[in-house]
Structures are given as structure tokens and as C-alpha cells.
Amino acid sequence: MSDITIGKGKLDGKGLYAGRNFKKGELVKRWNLQLISQSEFDNLQKNERKFVHSFYGKLYLFPEPSRYTNHSTNPTVYSDFTKQCDYAARDINKGEPIVVNAKLEVKYELETFVQSHEKSNVTDFIWTKGGYRNAVVQYKLNSNSQKILTLKRIEGNWSIVKM
Description:
This protein is mainly β. The chain is built from 2 helices and 14 strands, in the order ββββαββββββαββββ.
């Protein structure tokens, strides 16, 4: 019996489900991200590109089964971005969907892109508007100067379109 099973869902018609019961706080799955280059991204089939996310300005392909983690405002798991894995947000029963709050992932992508761009930690980071493809963020650097960026996801990664 597998801890996670692939069934029907919204990502290419697939989603993840608990193959057993999980207790709150228990490790549900590791992401097993694959670092890819821009040329590897460019050579992916169009339907594969949606499984690529960027962290610190680098592109990562989510392999199976993690790529089929559907999104929900009522997630059953929460992501640990440092360890690249998902933990049970509450007790999860066998057969329940494994879903995550995608807004937190996008915010993490945006914040790590800005940190990479600034080559410094940022403070008071706020994602003020936008979504998965376009965003406006504001933040402070060590100098406490307020900055605002307009970003757009281009070819898998975030790009600055307005400073």
C-alpha cells in the first residue's frame, strides 16, 4: 500500500489522495524537485511547463506524484519550503485529497525571487496584488528603503517589468 495515490483531480485530470491515515504534523510527502536549466524548460512540452516552479530564481520541475497536489483554500497539508516536503495540517483520513494552499507557494516564489534579485534578505515583504502569472510586491532592504516591483512570470521564471 502506498502512502499517496494518484486519482482524479484538476491537474491534467489528476490529484493526490491519502493511501492511509495521517496524524496532524506527520510527513505526507517529499517533493523530490528536479533542478532544470532554462534550455531544459524551453524543451519541455507545453503541458509539462505548468509543473515548473521557481525558487531563488532557479527553475524546478515537480515530478510525480507531487506535481498532482491540487490547490485548496482549505488545505490538508502545509508546505515546508526549506525541507521541500508537505506535512499533515490536520488528521487526514485514508482516501481524502492531499491539497495545499497554492497562494503560500506563490508568495514563497515571489519572495525568494526578490531575495535572489537583491542579493540580500528582504524585510516587510508584501504581495500586494496579482496571481500566478503577474504580481506586485513591496518590501524593504537593510537600508529600510521601501521598494515596489511589478513582476511577470515569463518562460517559467519571474521577471521584473517595472521597478
